[in-house]
Design brief:
Length: about 850
């Protein structure tokens, strides 16, 4: 009996500790209480029934040998001894006290009958585990139901109005009036005085004591406004830029944020407030420097079933919303920033696919009061040319500055997830929403609006291999229809970007049009999926590219807090703009789209080379070389450089012969005409462009052939430019193909151009044979289709890439191509990058130290 109870206590103790650790980081069903209910009686029983003593049985074995014929051996009559062995066995049994074994007692969680202190301590460890689980599960409900919560938050803000959501259950404070004024007003054009903007006469339980005040914004320019209410809430917001116009504030950059998924106190910290959101604190630290217009929250604002669902009544759902807004971390991110929302499953129930049946009405009651009422207007009806709103729609659309937005409802109208993935009738959006969405994609936007932003609560890519049926990967027919409409829109010069969440990981994916289709390569659609703002993350990666339809750009699974920062910026006069996406993980800038090593700027005028030159000068001055500065050329053999021919060029970097190779390089195809003697209508003239990520290729080389990597990073070579008369340029010293930073051990720069390379030296640690063997391996990697990016340069699309990292090339072509572009020094580019991304004080700290 004693052994059985002791073993049971040990097993349940291990279960309590392991499951508590898991639960407090990745909430699951709290069966800890069941284990604890078994553990307590077995622990007590084991303590009283287990003996303090143990039987120690010692056995001594003594072997004695004796020679019987000693005399005969001594007399010499025989030389063979007769040996007799005598074995004596002595067994001693003793009862002694069991050793204390403190470490074993504390680790196993079982009682120690010889130490009441160790017994109590190991028991208290398990009590603490259960207490922490109880604290996380029940403290918000027991101690913070937030019935008396009074708060105000900023909802949708346009260029003409702002919505302020107010909750005030105390009717003695009615009416609640709202006042606004322009912050840092500049007379005589700005009025610095506080003005009454609206009021709430009363609130009732019907809306959980919430109401929305719509604040008119009469100033014609973009301004920052401060607001205050008569029930002591304050904050600020920024009016939006007019449709088609870039912001007048924040250095002309249009910036907004996106993320999803929040649960308080994850990972668990017993010293945190029960309603704490560490991820909001990460956001609050960087928010002042972002110049963000709004937060586009992509669903799972509450988790009705995490850590435990207490019921399905309207009040159960309402309480969850109140607890988020009652969090001590909310004001820093919610009172001075507009938040707009889409619906996802955990606002209803996990993986919800039952439309408006069951608990749906109870679930969306608070969602409408707390989120929808302060959201942008409903989306426009298909066929109304963007003039009539779809009344009662749970999906939204709006235009701000250079971007048009459509916020999808992926839950209220979807088919069952269990239907076949490729079923032609399976829908995520429902017939009406799909019709309105496709109409929005195809609809021409006002002048200056160059981006269509799609907000989807679930990922569009099928690369997430876990529970794919709940994503767009489970609705392939409808997804294809939408993609084709997006490619059509992109073909007309509008960039299409999808923002999603839900997966608790980060993934950037490209959706290129099919090869040899009517869509150009530049019509590629991109998705950025970032979540959670505060939740668990998957310790095991679940994202994997399986075909060339959904192309992985970047994947990061770790991090309890993730959010994306999207910035749209103009680089030159005219309509062209670029979009930059940055993902912050646990408050740190971990990756952005400008780290790919190249970028396209669309809609660059092609009538002359001058707009391209002005655009590059927005970055920094154009570098002068022996070929001149800004280049504008057609094939010309007199220039003695293969770039000025029409032959194919393998992947290479430029200006390897300078001590400081060019940092950025830019190409803009102004025109490509065929031979004048031929009819070239519909003829493929060739000249496809090639990009290869040299850093990625070097990573492959180091993994597959470490010695080859070492050779190419150790053997220093002569580089030169000697093709033109009177020109013999070479760097200050010999440099290897792969330059590794000695202080960090990371790859710093790639120099690779066989036409500019001198003789491999013989005085190195490695022989020329070693170098050529390594170079052949490097060349083979560069030629792999899996890392080659081929595309056709189009007039109007400027390519800019990092010449220290990205190798470029082209296929042979016929006819005459007119290319313009230039080089920019890396130091000048980095200086401009710093000054457009960080406050000057922070830059000086980084530079000066």
């Amino acid at each position: 009996m004693g052994d059985h109870t002791h073993r049971t206590a040990a097993i349940t103790s291990a279960g309590i500790r392991i499951l508590s650790l898991i639960f407090l980081r990745w909430p699951a069903s709290p069966i800890i209480y069941t284990l604890f209910a078994i553990y307590v009686p077995t622990f007590i029983s084991s303590y009283f029934t287990e003996s303090k003593y143990e039987l120690v049985d010692e056995v001594d074995v003594v072997l004695k040998e004796d020679i019987l014929n000693k005399d005969e051996i001594a007399s010499g009559s025989t030389d063979e001894a007769v040996v007799v062995e005598e074995i004596n066995v002595e067994e001693t049994a003793a009862i002694v006290k069991k050793p204390l074994n403190p470490l074993g007692t504390l680790l196993k969680g079982t009682p120690n009958p010889n130490s009441i202190l160790l017994t109590v301590l190991t028991f208290l460890i398990n009590v603490a585990c259960v207490a922490m689980v109880t604290d996380m599960v029940y403290s918000p409900r027991w101690f913070h139901p937030s019935h008396d919560l009074s708060f105000a938050r900023v909802g949708y803000v346009s260029d003409t109005e702002a919505k302020l959501l107010i909750r005030e259950p105390d009717q003695s404070k009615m009416p609640v009036t709202v006042e606004v004024h322009i912050k840092d007003a500049k007379p005589p054009f700005d009025n610095p005085l506080w003005q009454t903007a609206g009021s709430v006469k009363w609130t009732t339980n019907e809306t959980d004591y919430t109401a929305v005040v719509t604040i008119p914004l009469s100033h014609s320019k973009q301004r920052v406004y401060e607001w205050r209410t008569s029930n002591n809430h304050t904050g600020e917001f920024t009016s939006a830029p007019k449709p088609g116009a870039m912001p007048e504030l924040f250095d002309g950059k249009f910036t907004f944020l996106s993320t999803s998924c929040i649960v308080p106190r994850l990972p668990y910290n017993p010293f945190d407030h029960p309603l704490a959101f560490p991820g909001m604190r990460h956001l609050a630290k960087v928010l002042p420097n972002l110049g963000a217009q709004f937060m586009l929250f992509l669903g799972d604002f509450i988790y009705i079933e995490v850590p435990k669902q207490f019921g399905s009544s309207v009040e159960n759902y309402r309480q969850k919303y109140r607890q988020v807004y009652a969090s001590p971390d909310w004001p820093a991110v919610g009172q001075n920033l507009s938040w707009i929302h889409v619906l996802d499953d955990h606002e209803i129930s996990n993986d919800w696919d039952s439309n408006s049946t069951g608990v749906y009405q109870n679930a969306v009651d608070p969602w409408h009061h707390y989120q929808t009422e302060a959201n942008p207007p409903p989306a426009k009806k298909a066929g109304s040319r963007g003039t009539l709103a779809r009344q009662e729609a749970t999906y939204f659309s709006f235009i701000q500055g250079p971007a048009s937005f459509f916020m999808l409802d992926t839950r209220s109208y979807r088919s069952k997830n269990s239907e076949p993935f490729d079923s032609p009738n399976k829908t995520m959006l429902g017939e009406t929403q799909l019709e309105d969405f496709l109409d929005w994609i195809r609809r021409p936007e006002p002048k200056g609006v160059k981006w269509k932003i799609v907000a989807s609560s679930v990922p569009f890519t099928k690369n997430w291999r876990v529970n794919t049926k709940d994503t767009w990967g489970g609705f392939l027919a409808e997804r294809r229809k939408i993609l084709e409409a997006m490619w059509d829109a992109s073909n007309l010069g509008v960039g299409v970007v999808i923002l999603s969440g839900d997966r608790h990981e980060f993934g950037a994916t490209a959706f290129p049009p099919p090869k040899n289709s009517t869509w150009s390569e530049s019509a590629t659609v991109h998705e950025f999926s970032a979540s959670p703002l505060n939740q668990f993350y998957s310790p095991i990666g679940t994202y994997k590219q399986t075909d060339d339809e959904d192309v992985e750009l970047k994947y990061i699974n770790s991090g309890n807090s993730k959010f994306g920062v999207i910035s749209i910026e103009k680089f030159a006069e005219g309509e062209q703009s670029s979009l930059k996406y940055t993902v912050y993980i646990d408050g740190v800038d971990k990756w952005n789209t400008r780290r790919n090593g190249f970028a396209f700027v669309t809609d660059v005028p092609v009538e002359s080379a001058e707009p391209t030159e002005k655009l590059l000068e927005k970055i920094a001055f154009i570098r002068q070389t022996h070929y001149g500065g800004f280049y504008d050329f057609i094939p010309d053999l007199a220039l003695a450089d293969t770039a000025y021919t029409n032959i194919a060029l393998g992947a290479h970097t430029d200006t390897t012969y300078f001590t400081d190779p060019a940092g950025l390089q830019a190409f803009h195809l102004l025109s490509h005409t065929g031979p004048s003697s031929e009819n070239n209508s519909g003829v493929n003239l060739g000249g496809q462009s090639l990009l290869v990520d040299g850093f990625y290729a070097a990573t492959i080389l180091k993994k597959e052939d470490p010695k080859a990597f070492e050779v190419l990073s150790q053997v220093k070579l002569p580089w030169h430019a000697s093709g033109n008369k009177g020109i013999t340029i070479s760097p200050d010293k010999l440099y290897p193909v792969l330059e590794v930073d000695e202080s960090t051990g990371k790859l710093h720069r790639v120099r690779w151009n066989n036409d500019d390379r001198g003789v491999v030296p013989f005085d190195s640690e490695y022989s020329p044979v070693d170098w050529y063997k390594a170079a052949r391996k490097w060349h083979d990697i560069l030629k792999r289709e899996s890392i080659e990016y081929w595309f056709q340069l189009k007039p109007g699309n400027l390519l800019v890439f990092d010449n220290w990292r990205v190798l470029h090339g082209r296929s042979a072509f016929t006819g005459v191509r007119r290319i313009c572009g230039g080089y920019i020094n890396r130091d000048d580019f980095i200086s401009r990058w710093r000054n457009t991304n960080y406050p000057r004080d922070e830059i000086l700290k980084r530079v000066i130290g």
